[in-house]
Amino acid sequence: xxxxxxxxxxxxxxxxxxxxxxxxxxxxxxxxxxxxxxxxxxxxxxxxxxxxxxxxxxxxxxxxxxxxxxxxxxxxxxxxxxxxxxxxxxxxxxxxxxxxxxxxxxxxxxxxxxxxxxxxxxxxxxxxxxxxxxxxxxxxxxxxxxxxxxxxxxxxxxxxxxxxxxxxxxxxxxxxxxxxxxxxxxxxxxxxxxxxxxxxxxxxxxxxxxxxxxxxxxxxxxxxxxxxxxxxxxxxxxxxxxxxxxxxxxxxxxxxxxxxxxxxxxxxxxxxxxxxxxxxxxxxxxxxxxxxxxxxxxxxxxxxxxxxxxxx
Length: 312
Ligand code: 2P0
Description:
With 312 residues, the protein is an alpha+beta fold. It has helices at 62-74, 96-111, 118-128, 177-187, 191-211, 214-233, 244-258, 282-290; strands at 2-6, 9-13, 30-34, 40-47, 51-54, 57-58, 79-86, 140-143, 150-154, 162-167, 263-266, 273-277, 297-302, 308-311. The structure holds ligand 2P0.
């Protein structure tokens, strides 16, 4: 029996769309920060048959089954009872599949003695969910060609950033990211332009992180987020992940920034808003977002560690 933990990560340069060849390969280079506070804890126990319990309930999960199948094509593994718990809403745009597959890969790696390093673990975690590759590492993380293994661009200590998550709904999304991004690739007239521009966005964000240039990072990260949501909105049928409180948070964050507060927003495939800020701005950002009608909860995170075994 082995228990591992991993945190969600938040992309500052987004992944939305896959290559058509096998391997669950993103169509665009992407870059994230790994959070603390939000956590998935996963225990694997050798068993007579595979069983997956998510937050205490037995579920059939095709992605988990496919992931285990792929691993078993390469490694002799026992059947596993997998117990996975999230301390935050699941499937609601808070990257539970990223932390989930990173924790699962890390637990199996240790339990079965596979001796993978973090890069190899990230390559396998990517097969489960591409964003999970990034949760194998702490700090600032890139997922780029040609190998599409995650790499740490800089450790968390390089540039302490904070993230205030404004939770505007606890419901699971109606269209999964996997289905949504496939729909966008097939139907959005702007999809090819999104893919073409992604390399420049990635380079600009990497440069901003190296230089600790908050203004440059704000501009490129908000633009990447809004481009991704433009692709979602122009998919057929449309993918609209925002609600009224999402928009109110975006407006408030832009107002705070124009008044001199170092903060920018990013939003994933769900209605939650993540306000990325310098640590000194956490209190004012939390207060401002917490007062917006429709914001159910705010959660403060700093940058966190990569996937790791906690027991034995
Ligand atoms: C990201 N998202 O870069 C983007 C932004 C959601 C919006 O990566 O199909 O759950 O399992 O590889 O990793 C969510 O996609 O999708 C995601 P699959 P995944 O964080």
